[in-house]
Design brief:
By secondary structure, the chain is an alpha+beta fold. Helices cover 19% and strands 27% of the residues. The strands form 11 sheets. It has a 7-stranded parallel sheet, with helices on both faces. A 4-stranded antiparallel sheet has the order 2-3-1-4, covered by helices on one side. A 4-stranded antiparallel sheet has the order 8-9-7-10. The protein is globular and about 80 Å long. About 6% of the residues have low confidence.
Amino acid sequence: MNPTRIGVYVNNDKERNVVKDIFKRNNVMDVHVYDGIVTGSPNKDAFNEIIKSGFMVDSSSLQLKTPGAFTKIYGKIFSGASYTIDKVLEKIRGPKTTLYILHLAGPLNSIQRKQLDDLKVYLVDVSGRNEYKTFLTVDQYSAIRALSFVFSVEVAKKTSKKKVPQVVPGGRGLKYDISVYREEDVSKVTDMLASYQVVPLETTKTALRVLMRAESSTELLDKLYHMPEVRTVEECKYASVFCNSGRAQMGLVDKLNNSEFQWTGEGQIVGVLDTGIDDTHADLVPAIAVKIAIPGGSIVDQNGHGTHVAGIIAGRGIKSKKKTIGVAMGSKLFVVGMSEGNTSRIILPLDYKKFLDPPTQGGAKILNMSWGYESRGEYDEGCIKVDEYAWQNPEVLLVVAVGNSGSCANNNYEYRTVNSPASAKNVITVGASTVECDRQCPNNKFTWDQMLPSKFSMLPASRENVCAPPVKPAALSSRGPTQAGCIKPDVLAPGTCIESTKSVIHLPDIFIDGCVVNNDSYAAASGSSMATPCVSGCAAILREFLQKKYDCFNPSAALLKAMLILSASFDNTYGNAARRKLTGYPDFDQGFGHINLRSVLPHSGAPTKRRLLFRDILSKSPDALASRMIPGDQIKSFYVTSVNILPGCRELKVALVWTDYPGTSVMNNLQLDVRTPNGMGYPGNYQHRYLKNDPLTPENDEKVIPFDKVNCVETVVLINPKPGVYGLRVTAQNTPKPNQGYALVVIGETDNTRV
C-alpha cells in the first residue's frame, strides 16, 4: 500500500507506547503523539500490525508520496521525497484582501490553531475535508504559506451562479437578502449598494435586506454576487406551512394495560412558530402561556395550520372527552404568529432572532417550526441562521419539518428534496410516516395515487397506503440527503390524516375531507407539519422525564436529540435492494427511524434491567474536547468509558450528538466508537454507506471501517450483544473552532449507573 497518513486511537499510556513501538520497529516516519491519538505514515507491515493489535484507525485525506514519486491530488501535481509534501508556488496573487481556500494537511492540533490565531487568520466556513474559507491580506498570505501544515492556498472561486428572479421593468421591484461572512463586510456591501442609490431596508450583523427596482438591478446583482465578502444573494423568501392514532404509534400508550405514560410534558414550554392560534378553542385555552405576533404577522389564526399544530403538541382533549389529546398534553405553549393574514405564507424577517428569541426568553426550550421553503438540500442562509442560533443557545432544541416535496421518478422516490431550514445540521429534522388508522373511513383505503394523482401516479407511491398498515415513510415527505451529504430526515413521526384542533377561521383546503373525527371541533390534516409537533411533544415528555427522574434540570438540545434518535425504530426492509445498498442504516427516507418512546421510557413491558445512561457536556464546560492536544494538557481530546452489558440484553444502543459551529459541512468533527468484549470495533454510523470513501478501505478490505465525518449524529446499535464490558470512546477528530461539547447516550441492559 502507498504510505497514507493515519491516526491510531489510544486510550492510555500503555496503548500509546504499543503504537509508538510498532511504528519505531517498522521505521515509520512523520510520527506525532497527541492526547488520545498517535499519527504517522506506516508501511504495509506496520499498518497490518496495528490492525491485528485491535486498534481503531482513521486516515487523513491526503496520501503521502514515496521518494521520487508523483501523486496527483485534487487536480494538482505534487512531488517530494522522504514522505514530505512540497507546496506548489501560487502563480496568482490575490488582491489586497480576498477570500481564500486553505487546504490543510490534516486535522488541526493545539499548536497549529494558535499559529492561525497569532496571524489573525479566522476560518469563516468549511468547504470540504480539511478545506476552509478565510480572508487573507497579502502579508497573511505570505505567512500562511510558510506554515508546515498548510497544503495549499487558493483564491476562492464562486460556484455556479445561483439563479434569482430578476426585477420586471415597470414592476414594484423585488426584495433580496444579502449575507456576508464577517461583520465588517456589511459596510462594504452598503457602499456598493449606495453607488447604485440603493439603501438597505434592514440590516443585521452579517446580512442586509434591500428593495431593487428595474433600473440597473441585473448589473448590481452580478457585482454583489462576485464580491468575495458576499456569501449569498437570494430573493427574500416567505416560508410555506406543510400541511390521535399517532400516540400509540409513538409508544405513548402502554398497550399491555391500555394506560397512558405518567409523563405528559408537565412543566415544559414549547414554542409554536406558526400561523397563530385560535385562542377560543377549549382544548387550547388552558395550554396557552403566551401569544405574540412578529411585525406584519397575525396571532389570530386565519389559516388553521397553527391551531392544528398546537393541538398536536398540547391539546387537552376537553371537546372530545379526552379522545383527541396532544402528545404532551401537560405542556404549555408560547405561540408566535408569523403568517401574512389568511394565507399560508410565513413571514421570515432578515434577523431570525426576532421570532426565535421571544419564546426562548419566555422559557421555551423546544421550538416547533412546521414550515420551510424548497431548496433541494442546499445549505442556504436560512440554515446558517438556525445553526448559528442553536450554537449560541445549546439548550434550545429546534424541531423542523423536512417538507412535503416528496416525488417519484424512475419507479423510485427522488433523493435530495429536503427543504430549508430542515437542511441545517443542528436541528432535528422530522419526516412524515403513514399511520395505522383503524377508523372506518374512505381515506384509510386510499393509495397515494388516489389521494394525489397528479404527483404520485408512479411506483412505488401508487401502491402505498396513505393511512393503513404497514407504516412507511409518507410519499409526500421530503427525502435527503443534504447538499453536503448529511443524513436527513433525522426521524419520522405520524404525519397522515392526523386529527387535531380546528380553528373557527381556516382556509378551505387546509384539512382533509372524508376523515372521521370526533366532532366539528377537530379536523384531520397530513404532512411533515403534523409529524413535527409529534416530535416536539415527545421532546417535552423526555425533558420532563430527565428533570423528574434524573434531576437533569437543563438538558442540552444535543441530549434530547440523541434520546429521540435512539428511541427510533428503523425498518431495514424498506425500499428496494439497490437503494438499501447505497445508504444502509440510517438512510435518506426514514433517517434513524420512526419515533417510539417505549424504547427509552420505562413501562410495564420494558426489560427490567434496561437503563438510560448519558453524559451531557456543553462547549463551555472544562470537559469539552479539542482535537490533538498534547498529552497532559488540561483540555482533553477524547473521553473513554465503558458499560457492562448483562446476559440476555436484547439491544445495546449508543448515540453521540453535538451542536456544531455553523458551516456548510461539519466544522468540529467528533467521532464515536464502541469496542466489544472480544475487541471488535464499531465506529459511529458504521452501517451507513454513503460518502464513506477512504484511502484505507479498498472495496475488498473490511478490516477497517471508515469513520463518519459528514454528520453531527452518530449511533452504534448492536442486536443481542454478548455480555461483557463494552468500551465507549468519544474523540475530537478535528475542531477548528474549539472547544466542542457533546451528548453521549447509552440504552441497554446493564448494571452501570453512569457513563
